């Protein structure tokens, strides 16, 4: 088991959430993940990371699989301009590679916001630390688990 996958598993267990991690082949996109588990596209919780330009830190936006983050709205929520996060920043702050960023199990605390669309589902699916692993969870547990604030940042 990879270190990334183990961190996600431990974070779920520590939170009292079943660690039902599934290997699905390739799930680098929300559509691939949805197809692999047989759920609606919007039941996939995408972890979108931006670089906060003033602080230099990574910030996290958890969005429904079919939605896109509006950079202007996201910047307003973050209180600073946001830019593209490179692979090195994402790996350094979260411990995950692009395509496998989980909403939990990060190496460092991260400011986060959540798309209210995700909260319309009983069950959502998220990356489990690799591009080949996902896990289901109760959508309403995600804000408490991640510290993500529900907000409108959708394009």
The amount of beta strand, in percent, is 15-25%
Quickly count the helices: 5
Question: What pattern of helices and strands is seen along the backbone?
Answer: HEHEEHEHEEEHE
Taking the sheet with the most strands, its summary is:
8 strands, mixed
Find the count of extended strands (DSSP E, 2+ residues).
8
On the 0 to 100 scale, the average pLDDT is 94
Structural class category: alpha/beta
The Rg value, from CA coordinates, equals 14 Å
Q: Percent range for helical residues?
A: 25-40%
Low-confidence stretches: none
* Rough outline: globular
Distance between the termini: 37 Å
Structure description:
The protein has helices at about 5-15, 30-35, 70-80, 85-95, 140-145; strands at about 20-25, 45-50, 60-65, 80-85, 110-115, 125, 135-140, 150. With about 160 residues, it is of the alpha/beta class. Strands 1, 2, 3, 4, 5, 6, 7 and 8 form an 8-stranded mixed β-sheet that branches. A hairpin with a 5-residue loop joins strand 2 (about 45-50) and strand 3 (about 60-65). The radius of gyration is 14 Å and the shape is globular.
């Amino acid at each position: 088991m990879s270190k990334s996958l183990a961190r996600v598993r431990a974070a779920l267990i520590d939170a009292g959430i079943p660690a039902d991690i599934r290997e699905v082949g390739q799930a680098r996109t929300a559509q691939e993940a949805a197809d692999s588990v047989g759920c609606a596209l919007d039941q996939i919780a995408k972890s979108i990371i931006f670089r906060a330009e003033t602080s230099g830190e990574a910030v996290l936006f958890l969005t429904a699989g079919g939605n896109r983050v509006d950079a202007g709205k996201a910047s307003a929520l973050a209180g600073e301009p946001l830019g593209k996060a490179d692979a090195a920043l994402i790996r350094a702050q979260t411990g995950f590679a692009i395509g496998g960023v989980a909403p939990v199990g990060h190496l460092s605390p991260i400011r986060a916001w959540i798309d209210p669309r995700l909260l319309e589902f009983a069950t959502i699916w998220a990356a489990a630390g690799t591009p080949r692993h996902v896990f289901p969870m109760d959508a309403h547990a995600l804000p408490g688990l991640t510290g993500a604030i529900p907000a409108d940042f959708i394009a």
